[in-house]
Amino acid sequence: MIIIFFIYGLAFFVLGLAVILYPKKGSAFTLANNFWRLGVFGLAHGINEWLDMFCLIYPPYKDILHIISLPILVFSFLCLVKFGLKQIISTKQKFFVSNNVLPPFLLVIWAVLTLTSRDPFWYGEIWARYLLAVPGASLAAYALIFEAAVFKKENLFSVARNLNIAACAFLIYGCLGGLIVKEAEFFPASIFNYKVFIDVFGIPPQVFRAFCALVIAYAIVRVLKVFNWEARNRIIALLERVKKYDSELELRIDERTIHLVDMNEELKREVAQRKCIEEQLRESTSVLIEAQRLSSIGSWSWIVASDTVKWSVELYAISGRNPDLPPPAYAEHPSLYTAQSWEMLRQVVDRAVRFGEPYDLELDMIRPDGTIRHTEARGEVIKDQAGRVVRLHGTVQDITERKKTEAQIKFLNLRYQAILSAVPDIITEVDKNKVYTWVNKAGFEFFGEDVIGKEAAFYFVGEQETYSKVEPLFKGSEDVIYVESWQMRQDGEKCLLAWWCRVLKDSGGNVTGALSTARDITVHKKVEDILKGDKETFERMVKESSQQLVETERELDKTKRLADMGMMAASVAHELRNPLAAIQIAAYNIKKKCAGQLIDKHIFNIEKKVSESDQIINNLLFYARLKNAHYEKISIYDILEECISSAENRFKEEKVSLVRNLSEVRGLLIEADSLQMRECFTNILNNAFDAVSGKEGRIEIAAARVDSSHIEILIKDNGIGIGEEELKKVFDPFFTTKSKGTGLGLTVCSQIIYLHNGAIDIQSKEGEAACVTVVLPFKKKER
Amino acid sequence: MKQRILLIDDDKELCEELRDIFMEEGYFVQLAHDGPGGKKLIEDDSYDLIIIDIKLPGLGGLDLLKISKNKEPKTKVFVISGRPFITDMLKDEITKNLVDGVIGKPFMVEDVVNNIKSVLQR
Q1: Alpha-carbon torsion A535, A540, A546, A548, what sign?
Q2: Is A504 helix (H, G, I), strand (E, B) or coil?
Q3: Are the beta carbons of A182 and A126 closer than 8 angstroms?
């Protein structure tokens, strides 16, 4: 009996330990969360059985052990009830009794029945079995069967089988442990009790109970394996999840990598684009530099406050400075320009800084090698928000070449103008309406200064077909047309003009006007007409012309001969002077050495003739030397007075009455050669005195203004006069009627007056008075 | 001691006539009739007055004038010539005081003698 109790207790104890200690954490089955209650039941019931076993081993402690074992028995059955209820409710959700109500209810009923009985320990156990063990075992069995169905669904057949086995064992145990109790006087304990059981079967019920406990322990331990399996499954599931995560991770890494590659590509593209932009920038910078070089424009900027100057490459080139050096500060600028240019620049920069005025002026820049470049400098200001000038910037253009070209163009233009004005032909330009837009100098001289803007027909003389003749030109069908047209000159003269008209076209071939040259062919036309109409007249003209030519030739010949004669006269005069000198000295020596009345007279004659010869030579020389007048302002009155008094002096032996009428020219100054004037009037007066020689002479000298620019001098005598034939020759050289003249006096006079642009004339008749008239201009006239 | 006059002119007759007059006046007179002869006398001897014709064979009167003034500035020099306007021609020499007198041919002997006397007395 002791051994049965021991096995019985051990079975439940092992069941309890196994159920509690077996790892079930994390299990998905509801059983796992509830199993511990079954475990507690097992442990408590096992201890209870062992306490019953100790009662048998140590009978004296029977009562104390019973007191201990009864609460443990009740507790174990309550655990079983709780297990069953909980399991059913957690699986089925609904049950006819509440989990929290039934156990306390059963416990209260048990306590009432136990405490009201005669022997609480004895009856307590009976009521415990009836009230707690029977429902507990039934509920547990039901729950396990129900759970077995759950496992069956999961295809865990061995677990389900073991659970069913455990359930059957619990049912049998419930019957054997709950219904078979100690004998008591009330039903059913009065019939179904240990004593009766032993009497019927011969074996105590505890043996069966122990057997049931073993079956239950075995089955439940087997069931516990399900948790192993479950755990394995969970591990596998976990592993799979890990795998899944791993592959997901790989996938995301791949995605990320692709994204990074894309980003990298994008970055590369951006870098390339940036390079491209930089390249463009560099290119446009180089284009700018090239443009500046080609146009010779340099640029600069100047921050006023910090005196920071920046120069472009071309500006270095223009100024001839080393581009590796920093640009010169504003303070160094005076050395860059000529003094005058610097002064101009200084002023405009000053104005720009103070008033913000831009500037544009031409400056002469000095290069370090001393050469000067003409430049055009422009500058502008940049102001800040407050309106203060912070920065100047601008350009410098080298216009040296341009200046040269301009000068060249100016020169060419001048030459072209000169050519056009030198051309004797008229050159005109008309627009397509035949209105004059331009004419050359000859054109202005012909048509007048107001020709521009007038239509060509304005100058036409009479009705003419000129327009219809030139029409093809303006229609563009002809390039050059010749036309003759009578036109009115500005002085009213009608002239025949021969026109060569050439069409002017624009680049599109449209007629814009005409450029024409015209020549005055009136005379040609007349000649032509004469030639056509009157051959005789022509011949006469030829004859006249040839006669004129002969006369001109004769005149020329004469002039040449006179010139040659003058040269010869000068030379002869010179050569004669030496012998004259020797003769004179010889005569002097004779006079000294052989003084005497007889010789003296002859010597005197020799000396006199030598003196006369000298006078002739002088006249000859004077005539030969007459070339140009040496002009100065002279008083004609003073000169005439001088000449008159010196003539009076020479001819003081003669009885001549002189009448002067010179008051009108007193104080008048004229431009003339005083020496030549003296010579001229001395000669005329000498002639006059000679003419009146030997009789009661009377000479009149008068001078007066004839107009605002000429004076007239009259020298009149009442002498022998001049014959008609002689009068024609008086101005010829070497012509003389006097016994002692060179024949050059009046020749010299006429030459002098001719040189002074005056006129000389003699009026006389044989035996009557002679009158010489001289007209002289006030002012010298350039020939 | 007699004052010395050198007369250089290619007109031998004129020279002889003038020599008579100057000797009469108490001067020592030497003659030359061409440029080189005159030059030799100027260089070899010294004179108080030299009268030179402008136009001379061999060497011009103006050259002789310069030679003389270079050698002895104190020696007076007269120029004698038949050329017209001789004074104009010698303008430069006169302003530089290289020429002390000009004698134009033909001339009044008394004038020339007086002129020479006054120059040589100075």
Answers
A1: negative
A2: strand
A3: yes
Measure the CA–CA gap between A383 and A360, rounded to whole angstroms.
19
State which CATH number among 3.40.50.1370, 3.40.50.2300, 3.30.450.20, 3.10.350.10 fits the domain covering B4-121: 3.40.50.2300
At A312, give phi and psi (nearest 5°): -80, 165
**What is the Cα–Cα distance from A418 to A719, expressed in whole angstroms?**
61
Task: With respect to residue A783, please indicate whether it lies within any of the assigned structural domains.
Answer: no
Domain boundaries, chain B: 4-121
pLDDT band at A626 (very low <50, low <70, confident <90, very high): low
A570 with A632, same domain: the answer is no
| Token duo for residue A421 | 């004005």
* Residues A158 and A70 reside in one and the same domain: yes
Sheet with A770-777, strands from edge to edge, namely: A656-661, A697-707, A710-717, A770-777, A759-764
A130 and A59 fall within a common domain:
yes
The parent domain of residue A519 ranges over 424-533
Q: Is position A245 within any domain?
A: no
Q: What is the pLDDT of residues A75-122, one digit of tens each?
A: 888 888 888 888 888 776 566 666 677 888 888 888 888 888 877 777
What CA–CA distance (Å, rounded) separates A121 from A101? 25
**In angstroms, what separates the C-alpha of A584 from chain B's closest C-alpha?**
7
Element (H, E) at A375: strand A372-383
A233 part of a folded domain = no
Contacts of A543 (CB under 8 A, 6+ apart): none
Distance, in Å, from the CA atom of A295 to the CA atom of A67, rounded to the nearest integer, reads 128
Count of domains for chain A: 5
Question: For chain A, what is the radius of gyration of the CA atoms?
Answer: 82
Nearest to A53 by CA among A19, A110, A21, A11: A11
CATH of the domain at A324: 3.30.450.20
- In chain B, which residue's Cα lies nearest the Cα of A587? B17
CATH number of A695's domain:
3.30.565.10
> Which strand (E) or helix (H) includes residue A497?
strand A494-505
Of the candidates A173, A175, A195, which has an alpha carbon nearest to the alpha carbon of residue A183? A195
Domain end among A515, A533, A551: A533
Question: CA A783 to CA A321: how far, in whole Å?
Answer: 60
Length in residues, chain B:
122
Where on the phi/psi map is residue A155: left (φ > 0), alpha (ψ -120 to 50), or beta? left
Same domain, residue pair A493 and A599: no
Measured between CB atoms, does A783 come within 8 Å of chain B? no
Element holding A394 (H helix, E strand): strand A389-398
Could you say which of A608, A625, A642 is where a domain stops? A625
Residue A267 lies in a domain: no
Tell me the average pLDDT of chain A: 84
Contacts of residue B105 in chain A, CB cutoff 8 Å? 577-578, 580-581
CB contacts of A625 in chain B (<8 Å) are 84-85
- What sign has the CA pseudo-torsion A191, A196, A80, A218? negative
Q: Summarize pLDDT for A503-544 with one digit per residue, the tens.
A: 988 888 888 999 999 988 888 888 777 777 777 777 788 888
Whether omega for the bond prior to residue B73 falls within 30 degrees of 0, making it cis, is no
Looking at the structure, tell me whether residues A569 and A612 fall in a common domain: yes
- Tens digit of each residue's pLDDT (9 = 90 or more) over A215-249: 888 888 888 887 888 788 888 988 999 999 999 99
Select the residue of B14, B18, B109 nearest A578 (Cβ to Cβ): B14
Pairwise CA distance, residues B8 & B14, whole Å: 10
Q: Which residues contact A720 (CB under 8 A, 6 or more apart)?
A: A691, A767
Closest-CA residue of A relative to B21 is A589
Task: For residues A457 and A379, state if they share a domain.
Answer: no
> Which residues of chain A make contact with B107, given a CB cutoff of 8 A?
581, 584
